[in-house]
Request: fold
Amino acid sequence: MANSTFNRRNFLFLGATATLGMAAQAMPVPKEKKKKKKKEKKKKDIIYRTLGNTGIEVPIVSMGVMRADNPNILKAAYELGIRHFDTAHGYQDGRNEEMVGQYFKDIPRDQVIISTKIHPPKEGMSTEQFLEKFDLSLKRLQMSYVDILYLHAASDVDYALDPRYTEALKRAKASGKARFIGISTHTNMATVINAAVDSKLYEVVLTSYNFRLKDDADMHKALQRANDAGLGIVGMKSMAGGFLDKEKKKPVNCKAALKWVLSNTLVHTAIPGLTNFEMLKENWKVAQNHDLDETEKVDLQLAMNEVGLYCHGCLSCSGQCPQNLPIPDLMRSYMYNYGYGFPAKAQTTVAQLNLSHNPCEECPGCTVACPNGFDVRERITDIARIKMVPANFLV
Amino acid sequence: MRKIFFLGLFLFPLGIWAQGVVFPTLNGWQSDGKVQAFNKDNLFEHIDGAAEFYLSYGFESLQVASWKNNGSELTVEVYDHGDPLHAYGIYSIERSAKVETSPIGLEGYGDAATFNFVTGKFYVKINSTQIEKVAGFSLKSFASEFSKTLCLNPEYPKVIGLFPKENLQPNTCQFIPTEFMGLGFLGSAVRAKYSLNGAEVTLFIIERADRAEVEKMVLNYISYADAKIKKVAEGDFLLKDPFNGNVSLRWKGNYLLGATGFSNQKTVTSLLDQISGKL
Reply:
């Protein structure tokens, strides 16, 4: 049996000489209320926010159940004070919903907020098939309703507004089996969120959101728009994949990353995937205080500096290359491949540039300066080769 | 069953899994011949939202092929998890305890429209629509033939065979790849449930490369449980885990055995004795 080395508790430990100041400076001033939990002896204040117009009030730290295999973690989370638990029809082929149902069957239903998600297959499904899956989810959950039913993993407008699925969501709500309906998105989030707002159908958005999106103006505009429209916003993927490098040797400071997300009041709660008790306890502390301390600010600042995979699109490299290579496009392609794990898109982008498979070979050195410190030549040499990979392997 | 050509059947020796996946030609079915391939970086494109879980089980690659036949559709997904234990792990964690399994590949189960099985390092998921319209076609038979192209004579990971059979609840033997019982220091483990005197007891086996790793694990657990144990040596321990309740542990060489959920430690001791006897 191999002992996995993946441990989210491994914090990024770097020198303390970095520049401070990144933190959450672009974020609105937090406006939330602290509550003393009623009927409980604990006096520690927990920060609550309201999920838009749903009126659902939850601690800012919730729980993504996906990777939990142990109902005792659910028990510990509930006993700590976590109230919102997120699962999906497809997680562990339904066993995840069963575990949630098994634990919460003895808890008063109105004491927890349960969400699940239905993910239609690529070839699509009918409204009836969607609802059949949802009924199966309810059966597994041993519940007559869920609080939020999401259309799972939207990455474009067509999928988000597919009438087969929107009709299913409407029917689920009308029947009382779903109190509120939402949409989840890991990719192309700003577009999906804007579509959700425009639809006037969705009430909650579950979206990837993390420090790597600090300078994503479209994303922040979309979040603001969704808030203005009264949508609840639930954050996920707060750890941005957990690592800063493609070799996965530099783990993210998870607690700092979660704080960064929740320091933006446009995000009402977050669902970190909690798989062990120590992680649970660490994350729960954020529910009482999401202010980044100096060490965490340093870690995130350095993480931002380390985020060599992510091109911020500042275009300052544009026009610098003596060979007139389209550097911004190539850096973006590199990000698609290594940052987003989207090699097909990277290949398409590179192919459109009509370059050789090693466009830098004529140059003895590289004069292009990237403000984020990218080794531009190395990245171009790396990503340009993607042209040679058969497209079949990149679908 | 209609004629199926399994080209990969003779491409590898007994007991070894195939190096590559060769999808069959199905008479009467149309295929565009394309096989979709996914790796660790883009698995999310196929199973967005669930990819992270598969990655935790050592996922390496996925190949997907599909066929059509007058409105009926058949899709086969072959997940390569690198080794038989991780493949068994993802299969076992997705398998309901209520299903009836059959020896397709190593083991599989299904219904009228789906069939999942594990064999060697591969976890295979077969999905269909309107398959009943295809006369003479049996998903189970198809799965059986296809499994032979992936691995001949698959065997359960050895650790599975260590669990006593008596009182074992069917389909509860599972491999957890990391953070077993929510405890990071325990790492990976195999667990199974038993019905003992009306209680549901979970038995687990943790195997490590050397004795020192197990010793470190035991020391960590003792510290975590704040137990007052002065001298740590191979043998039995009873710990009060703040989250998992009473945990009976037995350290033997490279193995840490244990049980939770018990009311009578004697019955647990008997089970641990049975496992110890096989080590």
